[in-house]
Amino acid sequence: MATEHGGTQKTEHRTGANGLRIQRRFSTPGIHPYDEVEWERRDVEQTNWRTGETIFSQSGVEFPTTWSLNASTIVTTKYFRGAPGTPQRESGLRQLIDRVVNKYVAAGIEHGYFATTDDAAAFGDELTWLLLHQAFSFNSPVWFNVGTESPQQVSACFILSVDDTMDSILNWYREEGMIFKGGSGSGVNLSRIRSAAELLSSGGTASGPVSFMRGADASAGTIKSGGATRRAAKMVVLDVDHPDIREFVQTKAKEEEKIRVLRDAGFDMDLGGQDITSVQYQNANNSVRVSDAFMRAVEKDDSFDLTARADGRVIETVRAKELFREIADAAWACADPGIQYDDTINDWHTNPESGRINGSNPCSEYMSLDNSSCNLASLNLLAFLKADDTFDVEAFTAAVELIITAMDISICFADFPTEPIATNTRDYRQLGIGYANLGALLMATGHGYDSDGGRALAAAITSLMTGASYRRSAELAGIVGPYAGFARNAKAHERIMRKHAAANDELHPLGAMDGTIHARAEQEWKRGIEMGAQHGWRNAQASVLAPTGTIGFMMDCDTTGIEPDFSLVKFKKLVGGGSMQIVNQTIPRALRRLGYPEETVEAIVEYIADKGHVVDAPGLKPEHYEIFDTAMGRRSIAPMGHVRMMAAVQPFLSGAISKTVNLPEAATIDEVEEVYYQGWKLGLKALAIYRDNCKVGQPLSDGKRETAATTTTAEHAAPVRRRLPKTRPSMTTSFTVAGAQGYLTAGSYPDNGLGEIFLRLGKQGSTLAGVMDAFSIAVSIGLQYGVPLTTYVEKFTNLRFEPAGMTDDPDIRIAQSMMDYIFRRLALDHLPYETRAGLGVYTTAERTAQLNAGEYAPPQPGTADLAEETPAAAVTEDAPVAVVPPATSPAATMPPAPEAVHSSAQLLEAQQGLVADAPLCLSCGVKMRPSGSCYVCESCGSTSGCS
């Protein structure tokens, strides 16, 4: 990131008597930021991979040449306003940034934030420069709404409130629906609702909160299915001392069992499947709010009381350890519930006189008063790493000042979905500055994610970010006044500032980089507390760590939020469609910083491109392996590595962290218990886990299976071609992949070994048809010279390029490409069960059948139905088509295929080390991937939660 502009000037933005004085750090006086970059026109087209249908197209959109095609596609499709095809449609990044920044500048002037109009203009240029250079981004609602004729909603995160009355419960449904309609998410704590063990005032028995959750879940599901591009994101919390806590804990685990039974009966229960709506509680994240008293009872194996909501009497006394085990057991089974640590949350509360913190937003990073909201913005940390691999502390601090100022200004003009939320947000002015690309920054600087050095650097950066934010908040309080609720909470707020500063004092830098950052953070906390004692603070909260899904792609980040790198290999979109597999560019930068010569860097990168990991990479020292550890794959970060990173940064955040701790499929309930217990001991505010393969419909993610040996080694003087006889059995299959139709004809030797294939794609005489003819000949000759079909299956399955998506084959529902489909079909038709099981290729019947005992006689190869159509070019005079009997159904006693495998697309993720359970994107049909506690689509940028 080039931050040399104005390098001789001070980096701090001084406050004048009547407003802020903005000194330029990034932009150049007299030169507009737009004039400093090179621009180009691009055509953006997006197709639905499930159907092949074009769902969006806009020509000639203007972006800087440094922005990736993926970033420009996501911004064009998600954030440009105006009806497509009309003059009102935005056509370039300049219009988008101007629409937002001009609104912030105008509001800042109107509400007295700037000393002069020149300061306001400098503020606008500085914001523009940072956005233009992808150094930060506001959350999605800002891009959706600000500067348009729509309500100026700027917040992505909401917390609601529900009391023990029917009016309040029904109002909860309504408010939640309005928030979902606007594309945001909300959370609520239902612990005020009396339990099913208590009586109503009329004498009847109460329904209990779990019963009312059903209605809210149905409402969320209906709104989601009504055409939204992101699913309804919601959080439901219940206190651990609620009498219905056991029922709450089991809700989603029981539904998961139901899903499995229905799936095995033939219903479509995959995520996004048409029958999944028949089960309940699938539209919310559930969390148990545990107290220190409960966790101490777990430690000591003591009893714990569940108390009535109406009068506080003891309804039931339970063994705390047993209840904690039930929580861990349910989370092990279906990833819910998560844990929120109530006393820790409220011990860091700046506004206790105004009420307790009871709930959170859907991703658990925003925690504040009931009926409140938070607007988010995230910095791209890698943008502040200079060419000499040092962190630009001055630029980072200056950027934080600008962003916090802009975020606070937005509350002055923002609209809100309900009046209580509007009142509380304006009175407490909660902000959520955070960052993305931490994983990439650590890798680029030679730090392992799960290392003391990595944690020290992350903690120092987080401390500096929050310290500078609160210092600027105190400056703003001196200009436009503290937040309305400050006076009654002044002592508590200052106490929390001192707690943050004390935590910073306890940091022990391990290197020059984090030492410099830590020293600056110490200065910021000291200055901020001094200024706050004089003026108060403008904001009750300043920072969180959000998922940064869509905006992470907007900034071309390799990693989101606090997450480590997802995998070492990624896919890059190409102009004109399609994609290519590339190694993350952070890797060569890290290798060069570690001192490896260029030829070694190239060899390691080539190895990673082939293998997807660094183990045994040529020339790479084993002590450097940890730097390249990833969330999934061959060298995946241990669960406690994630927890320790969260614990390192938590003391420097106003809110919490959106993150899911991934556990391998083989993890035990004891390990889940340990993660939840250590989260409490280490001072986290919230924690969620996901055990691989714990949900239905998810792909395999624990690496390749060992392929069974199907050939013996033998030395030959030269390969011998075994030609097919003049008359041989043949089978033709018609197929469709993402709407593209083709025909596959496979000819066999009389003893049923595959000997040739013919492929017909496109019109005869076209380039595609010619390429497929040549490819068919090459494969056929290879087969006749003895190349095993298993080798082709290994090489060509999971190959990804367009067209890719849904097929019309009941055994191969999703294909990553034509090649992926063709060789899966050949494996199913011509390989014995044992061999293709080793390759992970199964029929639908084999994938879904559940058997407890007995042996399975696998179907014989070459028994698929004859295709209805046979292309003329695929059948020659000496190759008549032989009709083969239809396949028999698998015996009822077949051994179960691995439960993880439920579709052909799953093996791609097995080989690339991607995480498993993720829904298909509602917009474009691509499988999403985790981002914090939510999911994000790498193709179109849609998210399932906050961004």
From TrEMBL:
It is an enzyme of class 1 (oxidoreductase). SUPFAM superfamilies: PFL-like glycyl radical enzymes. Pfam families: Ribonuc_red_2_N (PF08471), Ribonuc_red_lgC (PF02867), TSCPD (PF12637). Residues 1-20, 700-725 are annotated as: Disordered. Residues 708-717 have a biased composition (Low complexity). Residues 155-690 form the Ribonucleotide reductase large subunit C-terminal domain. Its cofactor is adenosylcob(III)alamin. Residues 44-134 form the Ribonucleotide reductase class II vitamin B12-dependent N-terminal domain. GO terms for molecular function: cobalamin binding; cobalt ion binding; nucleotide binding; ribonucleoside-diphosphate reductase activity, thioredoxin disulfide as acceptor. Gene3D superfamilies: 3.20.70.20. It catalyses: a 2'-deoxyribonucleoside 5'-diphosphate + [thioredoxin]-disulfide + H2O = a ribonucleoside 5'-diphosphate + [thioredoxin]-dithiol. The keyword Magnesium does not apply. Its EC number is 1.17.4.1. One of its GO terms (biological process) is DNA biosynthetic process. InterPro entries: RdRp_reductase_class-2, RNR_2_N, RNR_lg_C, RNR_NrdJ/NrdZ, TSCPD_dom. Keywords: Cobalamin, Cobalt, Disulfide bond, DNA synthesis, Nucleotide-binding, Oxidoreductase. Residues 726-828 form the TSCPD domain. Catalyzes the reduction of ribonucleotides to deoxyribonucleotides. May function to provide a pool of deoxyribonucleotide precursors for DNA repair during oxygen limitation and/or for immediate growth after restoration of oxygen. Belongs to the ribonucleoside diphosphate reductase class-2 family. NCBIfam families: NrdJ_Z, PRK06556.1. This is Vitamin B12-dependent ribonucleotide reductase.
